[in-house]
Amino acid sequence: MNNRTPFWKTIDGLTQAELKDRLNEVRPSVTNEDVLWDTLGASKISDWYALLDLAEHHMLGEELLIWILECLISFHADWIMNAEEWYLPNLNLSKLPQNFSQLSNLRCLILSGNNFEYFPKQLTEVPLLKKLDLSMNNIRALPKNWGTLNTLEELHLSENQLSVLPREMGGLSNLKHLSIWGNQISQLPIELGVLPLRHFNISHNELSQFPLCLAQLSNLCHLDLSFNQLDEIPNSIQEMSQLEVIHLAYNCLQELPHGITRLTRLQTLLVQENRIVKLPAEMGQLSNLKDLDLQNNQITSLPSGLTTIRIDEKQWIEISKTFETLLSLKHISFVGAGLTALPPSVCGLSNLQVLDLTSNKLHTLPEEMVQLTSLRTLDLTDNQFTHLPDSVYTLERLEELTLESNYIRTIDDSILQLSQLNDLNLMNNMLTRLPKTLVCLPLLKKLNVAENPLQSPLPDFQQLLQLTELIIDMDILSEDIIHQLEQELPNAIIITL
User: What single string gives the DSSP state of each residue in 345-370?
Assistant: First the structure.
């Protein structure tokens, strides 16, 4: 390191014009990398992390950072020219080096969280770019000439100031992932329909009509239209035959089209926070549907055949009046529904396999839970339980039990009645003791007891011969005991927090 005053200190207080003049004045004497770092009074840098550390530590302004990058590109510095990935997020950049297009090996460029107001022209001349992230900038318009960017496969433009997309984007013939959420877009050009998109996020915009180009996206698997102003989805959605995930939450929908029941690959349909009154009668024929979120709508009945729903208490009270349509349900989620008690009608669902009661205000469960003879998974995370209700011990087929983030102080020996249990999560409770009989559960593979004030003696975990994962606080087990467990339970991963 040179002992003279670092260059960036000599330019403190200069105006932008003065700084440019100073950099232009110095540039002819900077003929190679060594001279560059010597001029700056800095150790030689040969990777991105060191450069970003230098920029952050010395608070290098945009002009100086761009100047350094221009120099490195002009010197054909190996670590710059050979880099396939450039990471320049959150640096207050509003422009790129003029010689940026010389980066012929660049495949991935991250420029999120900067101050770009315009799409950098240099990017349209980078020959092999596949991923570009310009999210969280201030870009108001996109170019009509995309140049060599037809190599792009992934483009992130979220959280900018875009109101329109140019029709020329239809020429991005390899684009598979497009994210433009958080803009002010009210319509899409029909030309986007030729893109080979598989993932399209246009949530948090100003769409009031379903864009015609969407129905032409025959390869699309994931579509997010949530937080717009849509009041109707056309039947033409059935033409998007590859769709697996659709987000339509927080719109103004009053119904779903019959065409949505033709999407045989559909696994996730999120329509919470709309005004939907009724679902298509054939909805139950979607055999791959695993997540259907109906919370905060106005639905009073369900079509027969549905196997999964996520719903709020008010709607459940209504739909349970036609109880026979609920008997096919295998998965119910009341996440964040504000429940203080489990609706009794739930206990009459003999085919129910998964019951998710996360983030409610429950402190007990009804005795009628014994009727849930098919239940395999019960999630009671983030409630107000101080002990495990007796009714849970009657669920003889239960395989997964999650009690994370409650106020449970004790687990008694009745846990042995859950002989099929293979996954038990007791994290973040108030347990000081664990029952010794816990290790007698013959099928237990995963056990999480972290973030509890546990005291000795602990159960003899070595007896859990099927164990594959144990999560526990670091100060509970000594290194010797952990080493012993790893030897006696070679298939188990011991995770200490």
Answer: GGGG-TT--EEE--SS--S---GGGG
User: Is 108 buried (19+), middle (13-18) or exposed (0-12) by CB count in 10 A?
Assistant: middle
Residues 300/323, Cβ–Cβ less than 8 Å: no
pTM score, two decimals? 0.88
Q: How many residues does the chain have?
A: 497
User: What three-state secondary structure class fits 191?
Assistant: helix
Supply 200's token pair: 């399209």
- Least Cα distance to 385 among 344, 422, 346, 428 occurs for 428
Within 8 A by CB and 6+ apart from 123, the residues are: 96, 100, 109, 129, 132, 149
| pLDDT at residue number 46 | 80
Q: Which residues pair with 291 in a beta bridge?
A: 268
Residue 91 contacts residue 117 (beta carbons within 8 Å): no
Q: Residue 152 half-sphere exposure, CB side, CA atoms within 13 Å?
A: 26
pLDDT digits (tens, 9 = 90+) for 359-407: 999 999 999 999 999 999 999 999 999 999 999 999 999 999 999 999 9
Both structure tokens of 4: 């003279």
Regions of the chain short of the pLDDT cut 70? 1-6, 8, 57-59
CB 381 within 8 A of CB 402: yes
Token reading at 68: 């350094």
Query: Considering only CA atoms, which of 438, 477, 470 is closest in space to residue 455?
Result: 477
Position 91, amino acid: L
Helix, strand, coil distribution of the chain in percent, nearest 5: 30, 15, 60
Residue pLDDT, tens place only, 188-226: 999 999 999 999 999 999 999 999 999 999 999 999 999
DSSP string of 39-100, one letter each residue: HHT-----SHHHHHHHHHHTT--HHHHHHHHHHHHHTT-HHHHS-SEEE--SS------TTG
